[in-house]
Structure formats: C-alpha cells, structure tokens
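User: Here's a chain of 157 residues. Predict its fold as tokens.
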Amino acid sequence: MIEIRRIDKDFKQFEELLTLILSAFAYMDGVIDPPSSAHRLTLVNLAQKAKDEIAFVALDGDDLAGCIFCRPEASCLYIGKLAVSPSSQGKGVGFALLQKAEELAGTLGLATLRLETRIELTGNHRRFYAWGFSKTAENSHPGFTRVTSIEMMKRLA
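Assistant: Prediction complete.
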C-alpha cells in the first residue's frame, strides 16, 4: 500500500530522495539535450527545494517509491521533479502523486496543473495525455534554437 506524505522539517531522507530522483531520471541520459536538471541537484539544494516548494513523497512501507514537487503560481500549480523509482514504476505511484497535487491545487484555489516534459520523451507525453493533460506550448532551453520541451496543463474539475 502506497502512502503519500508531505516533506516537512522533520524529513531526514534527502540522501535517499536524491538517489531516487537520479535513478528515476537516469533513462534520460543520452536521450535528452540539454541534460536533465536533476544532475545539478545536491543534498543541500534538494533540501532547500523542499523548503521553497510543497513536496510529497510516496512511501511503500519504509521505502521511498516516488516524489513530486509543487510550486504555486498565479493561476496554476506547477509540477516538477515527478519521479518514481524504477522498481515502483507501473504500480500507480505517479498517478497517486498527481492526485495529491490535484488535492493541493484545490486547497490553494488553483484550477490547473502545469508541467514541462522534454520533447524527446514521447512516452511521458502519452502518459500525461492519459492522465488528462494537454499540450499548451513548445519551449526552447536557453541557447537552443529548436524545441526542447513541451508544456502541458490539466484543468481540474
């Protein structure tokens, strides 16, 4: 049974969380350009990110199975670093984390979720479409003239 818990000031598993994010994003290495920002995460800036944003972890017993970072914006809740451990993928962990983000958005009075995914990750696009997101923009990282990511949004009921 998966339990979703908010990261609070007592959270002590940042090393395990960093390992989870890096392992969940490892399949992107050599596939996306520019490389994932996950490679710039350290224990210090990950802990700061958890303070600056609203973050949740998915627990399978005592094991971290996934995470999601949420940042309220003027008209939506931005979803970042949605990560599911390779051993937990396909078990509904990502969906459960997104449901928690939807609950948070409702509590904050925000009617939309927003995320970005790399243009090369068509499997992610399909998954987000299946979860009710639609493509709303194409973007380029600084220094790139080609599209490197797409923005997707989900309107909430």
